[in-house]
Amino acid sequence: MASLLTCGMKILPTIIPRAAKFSLRSFSCSSQLFATVQAKSKKTLAKNGMKNIVVVDGVRIPFLQSGTSYTDLMPHDLARAALIGLLCRTDVPKEAVEYILLGTVIQEVKTSNVAREAALGAGFSDKTPAHTVTMACISSNQAMTTAYSLIASGQMDVVIAGGVELMSDVPIRHSRKMRKILLGFSRAKGLGQKLSLISKIRPDYFAPELPAVAEFSTNETMGHSADRLAAAFAISRLEQDEYALRSHTLAKKAQDESLLTDLVAFKVPGKDTVVKDNGVRPSSLEQMGRLKAAFIKPYGTVTAANSSFLTDGASAVLLMTEEKALAMGYKPKAYLRDFIYVSQDPKDQLLLGPTYATPKVLEKAGLTMADIDVFEFHEAFAGQILANLKALDSDWFAQNYMGRKSKVGAPSLDKFNNWGGSLSLGHPFGATGCRLVITAAHRLKKEGGQYALVAACAAGGQGHAMIVENYPQ
């Protein structure tokens, strides 16, 4: 991993009509990536008249590649396991939990409110309300911030937020024409009406509608968008492979050093107990370079090796007011502070949510990039991450697309996703946000930092960013 990130930024006319020049550090798997941040003495972000909202703890079951050990389960089984894991980790009384929110993206129609079904399955009282939210890849981020708002407004003191995704078994529908026939058949009266409907069926009616990770407004897959974005920011195939290898290498190191303490073991019915993520597979640049383009063929640069993979998994965090947490005898992990949601053009800026959200959340919190000790960004594609880093470090992009006078600057890579990311650990759409937050909290403790910045892009051209503050020792 010796090559440098591209210093020049060549922009496609359809996306960014002028070129901008700026530099970005080289990166490697050297010891600087694991450098410990020294403890700092900074102001707290507590605000007068507002309750402090804390993360008491958070867990996740191992994130697995779809089609592996979770393949015979349902989404609520995974979410139930995460909730039970959180109960075991925290010993919080079930009756103390006032509300449960879970995020998900591709819903199982039998359990459309998966939060409720998972809560009942985990043994929570049927008097404990639960609801499900969806906001693409930031669904559990939305679950957490909705929980935050419920607590901050004084409505509740103890809320569980989380998320789940099961890509091993996604709903596959009949075509719309066939569905109309079948629905009409159920209402038909008499043999004549039924035979009339049957006579209208044509062979193509039997073709199934397969789900696709594509934008409804543009009909473009996210991978296709990632390929165009990488081309627009002049990010080479080698750079993307290098970054993906970095993610896998750091994740393997975190596994080997037992840093991923948010994991809880999950005994899969009829199978072995799963104890770790199974997508972490450091390879070599030579092996990665042999893979063909996955989306724009044959010349695209996005491949299976530098993209996040379809993942099954679930996560959950316990949120309280600081006062309630201390009264119950807990030592919280972190404070949740300012957060922001953004949205932009889903065609050409689909994956640039972190670029737009980062300066806004920093300004809201009264911080600068230099104040941030830990960065945890969602890695949808290596090209997406590198494009965001370049956009954040571009005065021209800031001035022409964001209406800002100057760039906010790119994160220092020695603070960035140091325990791996979605490219290696996996990305269950509805569950990744909680992983980002609890990882940020754990890294702050381990590395002696005070502030973390969590950010993610999402389908629809949306994005999210949040400041997490270390809880004092």
From TrEMBL:
Q: For this protein, what is any one GO molecular function term?
A: acetyl-CoA C-acetyltransferase activity
- Residues of the Thiolase N-terminal domain: 53-323
Instruction: Tell me yes or no: is Transit peptide among this UniProt entry's keywords.
Output: yes
Metabolic or biological pathway: Lipid metabolism; fatty acid beta-oxidation
Q: InterPro entries of this UniProt entry? A: Thiolase (IPR002155), Thiolase-like (IPR016039), Thiolase_acyl_enz_int_AS (IPR020615), Thiolase_AS (IPR020610), Thiolase_C (IPR020617), Thiolase_CS (IPR020613), Thiolase_N (IPR020616)
Question: What does the entry give for GO biological process?
Answer: cellular response to lipopolysaccharide; fatty acid beta-oxidation; gene expression
Give EC number(s), comma-separated.
Answer: 2.3.1.155, 2.3.1.16
NCBIfam families documented for this protein:
AcCoA-C-Actrans
Oligomeric state and interaction partners are given as: Heterotetramer of 2 alpha/HADHA and 2 beta/HADHB subunits; forms the mitochondrial trifunctional enzyme. Also purified as higher order heterooligomers including a 4 alpha/HADHA and 4 beta/HADHB heterooligomer which physiological significance remains unclear. The mitochondrial trifunctional enzyme interacts with MTLN. Interacts with RSAD2/viperin.
User: What does this protein do, in the record's words?
Assistant: Mitochondrial trifunctional enzyme catalyzes the last three of the four reactions of the mitochondrial beta-oxidation pathway. The mitochondrial beta-oxidation pathway is the major energy-producing process in tissues and is performed through four consecutive reactions breaking down fatty acids into acetyl-CoA. Among the enzymes involved in this pathway, the trifunctional enzyme exhibits specificity for long-chain fatty acids.
Instruction: Write down what this protein is called.
Output: Trifunctional enzyme subunit beta, mitochondrial
